[in-house]
Amino acid sequence: MMKIKMLFLLIMAFFVASCGEEEKQDQVLLPSNLQISIIKETNGSVKASFIAVNANFFRVNFGLPNSTAERATGNSASFTYREPGTYTITVQAHSTENDFISSSQSVTLTNEDLGIGIPNAGYESPLSYDGYNLVWQDEFNGTSLSGDWVHELGDGCPDLCGWGNRELQFYRRENTELKDGHLIIKAIQESVGGKNFTSSRIKTQGKKSFTFGRFDIRAVLPKGQGIWPAIWMLGDNITEVGWPACGEIDIMELVGGNANGRDNTVHGTVHWDNNGQYANFGGSVALQQGIFNDKFHVFSVIWDESKIVWLLDNVPYHQIDTTPQALDEFRKPHFFIFNVAVGGNWPGSPDSSTNFPQQMVVDYIRVFQKN
């Protein structure tokens, strides 16, 4: 009987020892010492870097509503935010899918971080010129557009789909705002009216038009592949004679993109009907440093009975002699148009390098005419 009891005790001891060994083998070693580094890069891009002891992989949640933690490749992950705000970035260090530790850090993105802030620096033109009177101006100091402006809406259809240039945006009132003494026209990547982008286009047609004068517009321009801001004029008689017989004066156009001659270059052009044939004549100027998104510049034309001169920050860069009879369009009244197009024949479509939203910020428009 004593031997049986001893045998039973030995068996029980072996069983308990075996169970303990299995529990030790089943026990998971969690990661430890999780460290996170958050760096704000350009145009809303944020990079999270992380390390931990005994981590087999990481998951990251960049703090957007209804988002989940996504598995990272290696020890870092990046995300581009589209809206300003404070976001909580959470990193999980995993030993297995279900066994992990986590840590969080907050990051605040401003409009400047997103590349859509309004700079303070830049050229500013005078309020008077010798031999000229200031006859009209809009300093955009209110909370809404004055009665001198009207919106053009939609995608140009059915008469002028894509606005005659295969553009990709749908124009809306909502993409125009007045803020801190500035007019802001914003291009946004969103689906409206069957288009993947929205923007705004405003004009003074039927409200304000001018024949001859000096026109100064102080603005900061958007940037990026497929972005096409313009400050321009069309002849009042466009509804009677059509385009290009009405005449077009492009005070400023920029064709966005990273390549030289894109974000750092603006164009001044005229379009007209040359005895039944379409004609145009244009010039351009490039910045020696930086791009037109960096700070304010003043885009001007001086238009008189014999010529049109284009100026950047009061320095002439292009001119056309308008005395030939075929350029009679440029002795008649024209109205203003401000817009930011997306895509089109000239700039091409946006690509993965294009950050949205983009905006054109106008500080003022001033019209001077000779005494």
From TrEMBL:
<comment type="similarity">
    <text>Belongs to the glycosyl hydrolase 16 family.</text>
</comment>
<keyword id="KW-0732">Signal</keyword>
<dbReference type="InterPro" id="IPR013783">
    <property type="entry name" value="Ig-like_fold"/>
</dbReference>
<dbReference type="Pfam" id="PF00722">
    <property type="entry name" value="Glyco_hydro_16"/>
</dbReference>
<dbReference type="InterPro" id="IPR013320">
    <property type="entry name" value="ConA-like_dom_sf"/>
</dbReference>
<feature type="signal peptide">
    <location>
        <begin position="1"/>
        <end position="19"/>
    </location>
</feature>
<protein>
    <submittedName>
        <fullName>Beta-glucanase/Beta-glucan synthetase</fullName>
    </submittedName>
</protein>
<dbReference type="InterPro" id="IPR000757">
    <property type="entry name" value="Beta-glucanase-like"/>
</dbReference>
<feature type="domain" description="GH16">
    <location>
        <begin position="129"/>
        <end position="371"/>
    </location>
</feature>
<dbReference type="GO" id="GO:0004553">
    <property type="term" value="F:hydrolase activity, hydrolyzing O-glycosyl compounds"/>
</dbReference>
<dbReference type="InterPro" id="IPR035986">
    <property type="entry name" value="PKD_dom_sf"/>
</dbReference>
<dbReference type="InterPro" id="IPR050546">
    <property type="entry name" value="Glycosyl_Hydrlase_16"/>
</dbReference>
<dbReference type="GO" id="GO:0005975">
    <property type="term" value="P:carbohydrate metabolic process"/>
</dbReference>
